[in-house]
């Protein structure tokens, strides 16, 4: 039998164009008086806009304006950014990281280690096992989930929890209490999965009620949460007013989709209350819906944000049917509202231990508080948790509840209580401050230790 001789392809050929025309990144602090300009010129490639926005968002930078052009073979973007205090970027380490991450070797950088807690992996990353959960939300559910893990001697090292349209999605990093390694024993994983499924499922046998997974590929956590909700079709009920909306009415984003015949694009216009990571959430959703952003203009002066995207489907088609346009509008509205939380923000700092998350969420539940969003991370031996909570009965959280929390947990951990301004507030300064407050707690540990 004759041998089949396949042609030889140099494995480096794919990166040839990048090596010939490497990305050019500049961080300009002189051209603008009140912000830093981040300019990126690069060969165009699928997903490059999301990659750039993701890096800037992970640094908790506020993008006040952006001009995006990536039609054809070249990608040229200018981002006006500030830190979360509204100041120019002056930290040399931050500037150096931006230049390296967006530069020629940025795709080779292992940002999993550089920025812990931002990515999840297949089955486990290093010393952590990643768990995905999605199901119907109910008061005390997070407390029940964390109690199951604590009873199995499994420590929650980091977690992100979102709720939207009475659904809950979370990604948790866990490890073994004894050896602080990833939980990789098949029997133990099977037991954990079965118990978590029972908690998520509750009394309902419907398969849509809850799902548990230990495998999801290398994906940014926030993007993965969007993907989980999108697959769950949480956007289908975005027009329905829920009890949460009655408790704290949200300003509904104004989203339109029009056809630009002259240029051959569909134009998506979004106007909403400004907030941290708004640009990321929108670009992430368009990307995962298989749309390519060729041009865009972003502006967020004042409490409102205005964004305009010129898009096509990956196959080059525009959004021609009314059904497709309506679906894009619903999905973007859902993406914008998933991250919005109102009521109280509780920031806690304590020495990490197995069962800490279970203890804190139990106390919140016993005081009649429902968690609408949560972030958990561990730095060294310190656990830093942020919970957005509201009264489970639908009323504003009163001062007696806050004082009870302080008395019950104040002797074992540091507690900082913040009021999150209503997104419908007419007070521009409060809305602006809220918009520029990052959910990721950046310097929380430094504040507590100062």
From TrEMBL:
| ACT domain sequence ranges | 37-118, 130-211, 345-425
Q: Where are the transmembrane segments?
A: none
What is an example of a GO molecular function annotated in this UniProt entry?
A: amino acid binding
**Which superkingdom heads the taxonomic lineage of this protein's source?**
Eukaryota
InterPro entries given for it?
ACR1-12, ACT-like_dom_sf, ACT_dom
- General function of this protein: Binds amino acids.
Against PANTHER family, the record matches this protein to: ACT DOMAIN-CONTAINING PROTEIN ACR3, ACT DOMAIN-CONTAINING PROTEIN ACR4-RELATED
Name of this chain's protein: ACT domain-containing protein ACR
Native organism = Rhodamnia argentea
Q: What is the gene called?
A: LOC115739771
